[in-house]
């Protein structure tokens, strides 16, 4: 029986993989495009990404999870940087994203002043409430609040000497009621429609920093959304025994807010979820993958490893314990059995402007696809 399962997985994958990889690449290019502007908080980026995902769900023939609408709207606060992003240090104009970033909780400011060195990496203009910090690597994020000072993080390699003078013109806009939406659809099961397997991924990223710089977010998490959509497309053509649902969450980068909202306002009874698998950053895989919650659900992790070993899909699947580091977390807290999987190896770009689609190898995409199909089939059996 097990051999027949593996053979059927291989046949399914062989017939559809080439087309699915082509679709995933095309989808990734769309999600990381300038038009979607980092799937964030300026230039309507997140809303455009939501509309794209909704249109894909509709084209596959998925049904809205609540029977009415694919979108589950909610609101939260966020600090944004929609326009001016100018920085000159000692007469040298620095490039946003490449040479410097503004701390995500900073207030906007226009000033010209001298800097006082406080230690080896921190420089202060106290009267203007400016803090300059030198970093080896620039990593951006999202803030739900605004501080009363402006912090600039500069890449050490962008400067030839310690900074002494700063010219700054940066605009921020705090939005207390930013509108976003989770996108949820499902395929009705052929034998046990009341039992549901859920695949999730967050579609938001960091958006833009100023009017000319955006963060593409290819691996984080264009890769996960592309993978999820490929699975949705596959299962729409091959309905499984259980119902299978697909949820793309907003506001993961702001504090896993979309999944928190969903678990507090579920569109399906949470006790109907047989298992949930969250994917984030699955565009690599040379050295294998890691599963968060593996120690929480040893039976399912053993099953996942068995499917992997028999199919020789991934080099290694590393177990990890409970962690509040992605959208699986609040489901686990509500008693829903869930894994969070991410791949490892390959590119090191993360929360920076270099996380681009052309650098993403999709190393184990085919085998990851086979692993998911096999694991889901095993759960249903």
UniProtKB/TrEMBL annotation:
Stored InterPro entries: M28_fam, Peptidase_M28
UniProt entry tagged with the keyword Cell division: no
GO biological process: proteolysis
The Peptidase M28 domain, residue ranges: 182-370
GO molecular function, one term: metalloexopeptidase activity
Organism name: Pedobacter cryotolerans
Protein name: M28 family peptidase
Pfam families per the UniProt record, alphabetical: Peptidase_M28
Signal peptide from the UniProt entry: 1-18
Keywords attached to this entry: Signal
């Amino acid at each position: 029986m097990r051999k027949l399962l593996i053979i059927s997985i291989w046949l399914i994958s062989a017939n559809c993989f080439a087309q699915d990889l082509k679709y995933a690449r095309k989808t990734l290019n769309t999600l990381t495009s300038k038009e979607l502007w980092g799937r964030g908080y300026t230039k309507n980026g997140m809303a455009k990404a939501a509309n794209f995902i909704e249109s894909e769900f509709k084209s596959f023939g998925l049904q809205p999870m609540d029977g009415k609408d694919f979108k589950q709207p909610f609101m939260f606060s966020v600090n944004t940087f929609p326009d001016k992003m100018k920085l000159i240090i000692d007469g040298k104009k620095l490039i946003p994203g490449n040479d410097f970033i503004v701390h995500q909780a900073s207030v906007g400011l226009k000033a010209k002043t001298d800097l006082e060195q406080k230690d080896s990496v921190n420089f202060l203009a106290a009267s203007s409430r400016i803090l300059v910090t030198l970093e080896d690597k620039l990593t951006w994020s999202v803030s739900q609040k605004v501080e009363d000072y402006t912090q600039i993080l500069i890449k050490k390699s962008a400067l030839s000497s310690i900074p002494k003078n700063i010219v700054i013109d940066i605009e921020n806009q705090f939005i207390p009621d930013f509108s976003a939406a989770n996108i949820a659809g499902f395929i009705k099961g052929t034998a046990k429609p009341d039992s549901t397997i859920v695949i999730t991924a967050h579609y938001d990223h960091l958006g833009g920093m100023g009017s000319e710089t955006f963060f593409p977010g290819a691996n984080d998490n264009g890769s996960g959304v592309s993978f999820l959509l490929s699975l949705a497309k596959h299962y729409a053509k091959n309905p499984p025994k259980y119902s299978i649902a697909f949820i793309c969450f907003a506001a993961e980068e702001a504090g896993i807010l979309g999944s928190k909202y969903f678990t507090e306002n579920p569109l399906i009874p949470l006790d109907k979820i047989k298992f949930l698998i969250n994917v984030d950053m699955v565009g690599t895989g040379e050295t294998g993958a890691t599963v968060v919650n593996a120690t929480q659900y040893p039976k399912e992790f053993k099953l996942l490893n068995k499917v992997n070993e028999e199919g020789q899909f991934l080099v290694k699947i590393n177990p990890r314990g409970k962690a509040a580091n992605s959208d699986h977390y609040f489901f686990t807290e509500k008693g829903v059995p869930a894994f969070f999987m991410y791949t490892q190896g390959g590119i090191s770009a993360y929360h920076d402007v270099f996380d681009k689609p052309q650098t993403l190898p999709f190393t184990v995409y085919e085998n990851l696809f086979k692993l998911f199909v096999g694991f889901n089939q095993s759960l249903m059996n």
